[in-house]
């Protein structure tokens, strides 16, 4: 498979536009990626040809919609190498998937005196649901710290894990720092004390091959919109043995086999966790995004992004007054930084007027900002379609921002 | 064509670099916190009123973008030495300027130097940066100490 960047950019209609009379350089991919035509077409095709409710119709359209919906589940199963498609639960996104686990599994497996361990670099979505759970049940939230390179302090892990630890929540690829965490190691150690591990793969899946069986994680979550798919759809992978015994998260249609006013029998996996009419179009688009990723090859995309990141880091290191936030040995796709004398928010505005879209803020990881003693950072994050020319444009614009405030 | 200098006028750049009335007031009659969760801007304002209701001294501290620091700096200059009773009118004039139609010229006579912040109208996502200090000062003036001011 060859990786032809011009051809690949041609797949993304949105990239070919001017913003404030400048060519758009979209460098905010950690917030959300753009969508290839194949994904847009799959969603449109569904609405134009197949729109019907799933799992309940007896007519042709419903059968086609159901087939496409379930085909997406199988594509995702294969992408993350789950053992069974029963283990793939569609959710609204990574956030809802974590909340599902914190409610359903957490309420039944975590009690007073137990501990939940998360890292200092978690996204708020992998902190707040656990905090809420701990508050509900009287458990304690523990934190695995990071060092000044933005890497986990792995040497402290053994001390933090003990027989009270019931769950470890860990981000695979940090959206704020770009750090790739040694999740396999963490999982092995957590399992040794009997804890379960949820891996937050919201950022990871578009940028690296993920194999949930090789990792042996108990839960894995991600969002379609960060991997070239639609918003409002994501997934929870859970080991079948765990999902089997977990109570439903929400009640409603589709998640039952029989309802009387005295009693309800819940549906089997994965439907037990998919109450109500799901995001059918989004799921079908999610499946198309997986096809697009496979067609281009995650390994090819990752290699391209690594070369972009190395190029950007090289320029960043040579740029006067620029401080890179997150210098882990193992990182991907994210360049988070501050520029002396220019607040990230001002940078965001100035770059925007040059057609360059970046993120400025705390990236839903306020503890990371606190660790580095900054209120916010500017963040450029790369995807398959970005180019070195866009990175050149970024640094030229940073130079102009610096001059404006000189 | 629009120039970034319309937003980042030299006055704003200067006030950002060396904000006026920056720091603590040891003796103050009113104070308040302001916080913009979107960009993490944090301000604390202090106000010392005389018995006659004159702003004898005013100061602010905190961190934020150039727009929010410059706006706070300019605000303190604008209200220092004036009757606190005038604050509400100035608050409204400022609020009006940063949310009004672009075609409308800022009222230099009423706003004085504050008019340099009129450029934020071009940047909807930045209006809150300019108004945070005003909301914060307003809650200090109204004496509602306990809830940090927000820009909503
Ligand atoms: C690391 C990480 N986890 C979780 C999330 C939450 O994803 P979503 O908002 O799609 O549910 C994000 C999104 O920014 C993220 O970057």
What does this protein look like?
The complex is a heterodimer of chains A (406) and B (152). Chain A has 406 residues and is α/β, with parallel strands linked by helices. Chain A contains 14 helices and 17 strands. In chain A, the strands form 5 sheets. Chain A has a 7-stranded mixed sheet, sandwiched between helices. In chain A, a hairpin with a 4-residue loop joins strand 11 and strand 12. In chain A, helix 2 runs antiparallel to helix 10, helix 4 runs parallel beside helix 5 and helix 12 packs across helix 14. In chain A, 51% of the residues are buried. Chain B is α+β, with helices and mostly antiparallel strands. Chain B has a single domain, classed as Sufe protein. Chain: A, CATH 3.90.1010. In chain B, a hairpin with a 5-residue loop joins strand 2 and strand 3. The longest helix of chain B has 15 residues. The mean pLDDT of chain B is 90. At the A-B interface, helix 12 of A face helix 1 and helix 2 of B. The structure holds pyridoxal-5'-phosphate. The site of pyridoxal-5'-phosphate (PLP) has 15 residues of chain A, from helix 4.
